[in-house]
Amino acid sequence: MDTKKITTTAVLAAFSLVLMLLIRFPIFLPFLIYEPGDIPILIIAFLFGPGAALGATFILSILMAVFTGLGGPFGAFMHFLATGVFAGCAGYFYQQHHNKLGAIKGLVIGSIAMTAVMAGANLILNPIFYGIPREQVLQMMLPGILPFNLTKAVINSVITVLIYKKLSNFMRSKSLIKRGELKE
């Protein structure tokens, strides 16, 4: 990865952290917090592929736990898992289908994958880390966990689709990325 790619990834990751810290509110259940930090990560995935997005997500997950204290190492792992699956799937699919429809399909696939993975992760890991009975986690699945993950993914996907092309064109005009780098 060259210097411009590293710098662009770092700036987008920093913007993700700012969004994660400044825009936070609960939806569905009080402990399920929406934050739009996935949007810059999705842009990284589309610009530079899923590997760059996973790297940025790993660092951000640790920083988020440090800055907010929410969930500690378990919260960092769950954030990495959710955003990593979402951006990883979306970025991988977009690499294979370099157009707007490919981006949309990738975001849909990523949204569904994240929701499924997080349902399983919550069922398996919440009883271990929080001592919550599995039956209680199952009872939270439909009123909270599933709709939360789908809603978060849809909101972040829609915003990403709306801004990606304009942002990538701006970045190209400022020579932050080369013409051939984008997979639009």
From TrEMBL:
Signal peptide: none
Record's GO cellular component terms: plasma membrane
Transmembrane segments: 12-34, 41-68, 74-94, 106-125, 145-164
Entry keyword set: Cell membrane, Membrane, Transmembrane, Transmembrane helix, Transport
Membrane topology: Multi-pass membrane protein
GO molecular function: riboflavin transmembrane transporter activity
Keyword Transport: yes
InterPro entries in the record: ECF_trnsprt_substrate-spec, RibU
Pfam family, one: ECF_trnsprt
Subcellular location: Cell membrane
PANTHER family: RIBOFLAVIN TRANSPORTER RIBU
UniProt function note: Probably a riboflavin-binding protein that interacts with the energy-coupling factor (ECF) ABC-transporter complex.
Similarity remark: Belongs to the prokaryotic riboflavin transporter (P-RFT) (TC 2.A.87) family.
Protein name as annotated: Riboflavin transporter
